[in-house]
Amino acid sequence: MSLWYKRDMSAPSLTDLAIKHKTDKWGLHFYTQHYERHFQHLRNQKVKILEIGVGGYQDPKAGGESLRMWKDFFQEGLIYGIDIHDKSTHEEDRIKIFRGSQIDSNFLGSVLAEIGEPDLIIDDGSHINEHIIETFKILFPKLKQDGIYAVEDLQTSYWNSYGGDSFNLKNPKTAMNFFKGLTDSMNFEEFDRPSYRPSYFDRNVIGMAFYHNMVFVQKGHNNEPSNWVTNNRLRSKNGKSWLKYAMRSIASRIGM
Ligand SMILES: C[S@@+](CC[C@H](N)C(=O)[O-])C[C@H]1O[C@@H](n2cnc3c(N)ncnc32)[C@H](O)[C@@H]1O
Questions:
Q1: Spatial CA neighbour of 21 closest among 75, 81, 65
Q2: Residue 50: pLDDT above 60?
Q3: How far apart are CA 103 and CA 255, in angstroms?
Q4: Does the beta carbon of 25 sit less than 6 angstroms from any atom of ligand 1?
Q5: Distance in angstroms (rounded) separating the CA atoms of residues 32 and 23
Q6: Is residue 102 within 6 Å of ligand 1 at its C-beta?
Q7: What domains are defined for the chain?
Q8: What percent of the chain has pLDDT over 70?
Q9: Does residue 1 surpass a pLDDT of 70?
Q10: 1-5, 56-60, 132-136: lowest mean pLDDT where?
Q11: Which residues, other chains included, contact 205 with Cβ-Cβ below 8 Å and sequence gap of 6+?
Q12: Of the residues 65, 83, 135, which should be mutated to test ligand 1's pocket, given the most ligand atoms within 8 Å of the CB?
């Protein structure tokens, strides 16, 4: 894949670092090119990055590769990992690991109380569809306002054993369909439904990027006004209802 963003050529690429630290984010998967594009602007910042899934499963000594890659990439960053198994042997300066499940909201709350709002969250944990959605619902509201939430291995959206579905591609229980739904959230201001009440995700998702088996969700205030004022077709179609749209649009922006 060709690069369409400007990379900092004075430092090793994230792919170089993935190879160095032996994480399968490059090789088995091809995620590092996408991560670099979306995370590059934060490379020299004091970011807090939280990755669910340290790697190595039951073996306490195995895993930690991606945390070490992130530490190398974000030279000023604080790197936090979560795993259901004990991964404490991988802790070192700027890498801290918590043991617990990605769907345990009390556990996640205690992690966030300790580390504060992350700038970046990555879900590379169980890859079970129900877990991916539940974890996103718990953690996305805790992400920094201009933060980015990435989810890997969305191929499980099509795998029955993970709660996915290859036959009904509109199955509402798959992670892919959950995230596809957020693409409508971004445009809620344009809904032709005057009584529509925007959700938290409507108000706080401002961008999404889908790649093979992964998605990035950009958090921010989704408060750009609707196009209805200048859209003559919509105005004539709705006749006098434009006033309702104006009221609803203003109400949603002031959080009513
Ligand atoms: C694919 S590996 C992570 C690989 C690592 N992020 C990397 O790129 O090198 C997935 C990890 O998620 C952990 N995991 C599985 N279910 C989990 C859950 N419910 N909560 C937290 N971690 C979980 C597993 O123990 C395993 O170590």
A1: 65
A2: yes
A3: 29
A4: yes
A5: 10
A6: yes
A7: 15-224 (3.40.50.150), 227-256 (no CATH)
A8: 86
A9: no
A10: 1-5
A11: 182, 185, 186, 217, 218, 219, 220, 222
A12: 83
The answer to which of 20-29, 79-88, 194-203, 242-251 has the lowest mean pLDDT is 242-251
Please pick, among 21, 29, 90, 127, the residue that the annotation labels catalytic. Answer: 127
Comparing 44-48, 169-173, 224-228, the range with the smallest average pLDDT is 224-228
Burial grade of 70 (CB within 10 A; 0-12, 13-18, 19 or more): buried
| 12 C-alpha to ligand 1 centroid (Å) | 26
* Residue 154 near residue 214 (C-beta atoms within 8 A): yes
Task: State yes or no: is 127 an active-site residue.
Answer: yes
Q: Is 51 in the pocket of ligand 1 (CB under 6 A)?
A: yes
For the CA of 64, the closest atom of ligand 1 is: 9
Q: Is 82 in the pocket of ligand 1 (CB under 6 A)?
A: yes
Burial of 139 (0-12, 13-18, 19+ CB in 10 A): buried
Distance 41 CA to ligand 1 centre (A): 26
**Ligand 1 centroid to residue 142 C-alpha, Å:** 20
Q: Does residue 235 have a pLDDT over 60?
A: no
> pLDDT grade, residue 145 (50/70/90)?
very high
